[in-house]
Design brief:
By secondary structure, the protein is of the alpha/beta class. About 40% of the residues lie in helices and about 25% in strands. Helix 1 links the parallel strand 1 and strand 2. The longest helix has 23 residues. It is globular and about 55 Å long.
């Protein structure tokens, strides 16, 4: 079966985990790993038979057959270099940084509307874990306010995550509104130093507009959405089922990683990578239908 050739820019932990997920895909071919130094991630990709470059995005855009690129670098790098160069080359960019040049993408919510976009942004790990639940609530009862607390293991927060903490809160808060449907959103991230490391947990609180729809409809909408997210994030589940007190709905979701490259407790990295691959596969399916694989 034909597959769409893709590149990963950024050979760190996120990029390496992406590589292993792409290996499993029936629509994507791992064609290149790009970095800027001869790093462990570059050597790892080479050992798996993947073509590599240490010229960053410049090495990617010189390839004529790459159609999709995952950017796992930083918000500043995507804004200044990677995003514009990929767009100029006509390579679809799946942005895993908080740069948000392109529209926010949460696959179960709005991927179908973003099929023609040249650059889509995967929000943040906390956004991917919580926005589906907020959206589910907003669709049946409206959402005047949504607040989320993403708690991740300190061990799963690498240099990139720590360097982008401000962008995380800003991007996630905005996406709760733009994608989740809340009138106002607020996001908080907590790095948990517990040993042994704990799974990623996300507390979601939504102030609904219409309590007359009844809690049963809200609960059913949340449970249905959780099942949909699990189709591409197997370790996603309700840790604490939804409850409702007055006009406030609260739920806690947990994300256990698939341990492709990263430990299972790194659910924060697993969910954004899984969402990125799910988005790329849908785009690749369309490209293959249109005969754009070469």
């Amino acid at each position: 079966m034909d597959r769409i050739k893709v590149a990963v820019i950024g050979p760190g932990n996120i990029g390496s985990d992406l590589m292993y997920k792409i290996f499993r895909s029936k629509y994507l071919e791992m064609a290149m790993m790009a970095g800027i130094v001869e790093s462990e991630g570059i050597r790892r990709a080479k050992s798996k038979g993947v073509k590599t470059t240490i010229e960053g995005v410049d090495g990617v855009v010189r390839e004529d057959d790459i159609r999709i690129a995952f950017d796992a670098t930083s918000a500043s790098a995507h804004l200044k270099f990677n995003g514009p160069k990929l767009k100029e080359k006509g390579i679809v960019s799946i942005d895993l940084t908080p740069a948000a040049i392109g529209p926010y993408c949460v696959p179960v919510v709005n991927l179908d509307q973003l099929q023609q976009e040249p650059d889509i942004n995967m929000v943040t790990c906390g956004g991917q874990a919580t926005i589906p639940v907020v959206y589910a609530v907003s669709q049946v009862a409206g959402a005047a306010y949504a607040e989320i607390v993403a708690c991740i293991s300190s061990k799963s927060a690498g240099p990139g995550t720590r360097a982008n903490m401000d962008e995380f809160t800003e991007t996630t808060s905005k996406a709760l509104e733009v994608v989740g449907g809340a009138d106002k959103g607020k996001a908080i991230i907590v790095l948990n130093p517990a040993e042994p490391p704990l799974m990623m947990t996300n507390t979601i609180s939504v102030k609904v507009k219409d309590t007359s729809v009844g809690f049963d409809r809200i609960r059913e909408a949340i449970e249905k959405m959780v099942d949909e997210v699990k189709t591409y994030v197997p370790g996603y589940k309700l840790r604490v089922p939804p409850t409702m007190e007055g006009d406030r709905v609260t739920a806690i979701v947990q994300v256990e990683g698939q341990a492709d490259f990263l430990p299972a407790y790194s659910g924060n990295l697993d969910i954004i990578n899984s969402a990125a691959v799910a988005a790329a596969e849908k785009i690749a399916e369309r490209m293959l239908r249109e005969g754009r694989n070469g």
